[in-house]
């Protein structure tokens, strides 16, 4: 995969910061003999409802820091989707005199003020996963490309004209705007017709289910050719609404997703969800850790490209359907066959060649 080439150029000579979290402890202590002097890195994530942050981003980031520096500390915060709480957490990190801040904002637009506060205290900021105007560095995926891949997958799955619903992400999330733009660029040029569209506050699966149910009260559920759902949580809500409206699981229209959550992979195996976008989080988290290491050591951050005037590490998203689960999320050990193929999915896994 192309992401391997991206990380090959990130030859960042290392000594960095890591260890305990502000919300929970994390063990430090790597064995890099070149590591010296300690530093402190603040990792601030936006919420815990989406499975990826606590299950992947946080431990992967901390593990990489620990690998590279035995005497470093990571102070960890999770804002639980609360802007005011995240602002307090940024203030706390500043008061602790951290050396660098890795910030995934609840609200990308208002977070520019948080970046300015950190920089006023001589703390560089890496915008993580979501772009923040004025950040010193940025690491994420090609988010417009995510929407394009989702839109193209839906167009291909429908294979012609038809009515669709669109469920986009939170209006406060700058990534959501890019997903939406990319998807519209493909869908608007196709023969599909958007008969209902929703920008979902907080990416809530419950909101997605309620909104879809309301739409199905005004249109014939059987008339839907497909549904664009910007992430897997919303896809789950959409599918619950569709089955609740009487559509059999084997007659569901194509539904898109993103994040390669375990439940979504299982739905794909079972034929309930058409696809998801897999973003290799390991590369993103480790790339951010390597950036932080270079900053702590006063070294140049290598291997970046320009994104809106900010030195950035931009990675490639990957489409996952039932045909390539083994070659993507399983091959990367993101999920194991044992994770996916529980008793409820054993027959579907066999049919998909996963068992």
UniProtKB/TrEMBL annotation:
A GO CC term assigned to this protein in UniProt: outer membrane-bounded periplasmic space
Family annotation (Pfam families): Peripla_BP_4
Protein name: ABC transporter substrate-binding protein
Cross-referenced InterPro entries: Bact_Solute-Bind_Prot2 (IPR050555), Peripla_BP_I (IPR028082), SBP_2_dom (IPR025997)
Family annotation (Gene3D superfamilies): 3.40.50.2300
Signal peptide: 1-19
One Gene Ontology MF term: carbohydrate binding
Domain Periplasmic binding protein: 41-300
Record localization: Cell envelope
UniProt cross-references to PANTHER family, sorted A to Z: D-XYLOSE-BINDING PERIPLASMIC PROTEIN
Keywords: Signal
């Amino acid at each position: 995969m192309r992401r391997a080439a991206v990380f090959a150029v990130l030859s960042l000579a290392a000594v960095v910061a890591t260890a305990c979290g502000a919300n929970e402890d994390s063990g430090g202590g790597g064995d890099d003999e070149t590591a010296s002097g300690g530093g402190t890195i603040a990792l601030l994530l936006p919420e815990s409802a989406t499975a990826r942050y606590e299950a992947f981003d946080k431990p992967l980031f901390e593990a990489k820091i620990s690998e590279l520096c035995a005497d470093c500390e990571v102070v960890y915060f999770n804002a639980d989707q609360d802007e005011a709480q995240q602002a307090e957490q940024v203030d706390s990190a500043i008061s602790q005199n951290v050396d660098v801040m890795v910030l995934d904002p609840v609200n990308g637009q208002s977070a520019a003020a948080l970046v300015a506060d950190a920089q006023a205290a001589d703390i560089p900021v890496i915008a993580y996963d979501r772009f923040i105007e004025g950040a010193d560095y940025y690491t994420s995926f090609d988010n417009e490309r995510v929407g394009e891949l989702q839109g193209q997958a839906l167009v291909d799955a429908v294979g012609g004209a038809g009515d669709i619903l669109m469920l986009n992400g939170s209006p406060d999330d700058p990534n959501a705007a890019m997903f939406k733009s990319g998807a519209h660029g493909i869908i608007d040029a196709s023969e599909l017709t958007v008969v209902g569209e929703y920008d979902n506050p907080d990416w809530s699966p419950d909101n997605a289910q309620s909104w879809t149910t309301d739409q199905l009260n005004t249109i014939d559920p059987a008339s839907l050719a497909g549904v664009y759902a910007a992430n897997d949580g919303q896809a789950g809500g959409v599918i619950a609404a569709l089955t609740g409206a009487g559509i059999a699981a084997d007659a569901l229209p194509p539904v898109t997703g993103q994040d390669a959550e375990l439940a979504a992979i299982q739905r794909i195996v079972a034929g309930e969800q058409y696809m998801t976008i897999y973003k290799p989080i390991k590369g993103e988290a480790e790339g951010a850790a390597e950036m932080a290491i270079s900053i702590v050591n006063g070294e140049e951050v290598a291997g970046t490209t320009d994104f809106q005037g900010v030195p950035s590490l931009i990675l490639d998203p990957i489409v996952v359907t039932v045909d390539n689960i083994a070659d993507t999320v399983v091959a990367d050990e993101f999920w194991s066959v044992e994770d996916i193929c529980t008793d409820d999915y054993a027959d579907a896994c066999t049919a998909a060649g996963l068992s």
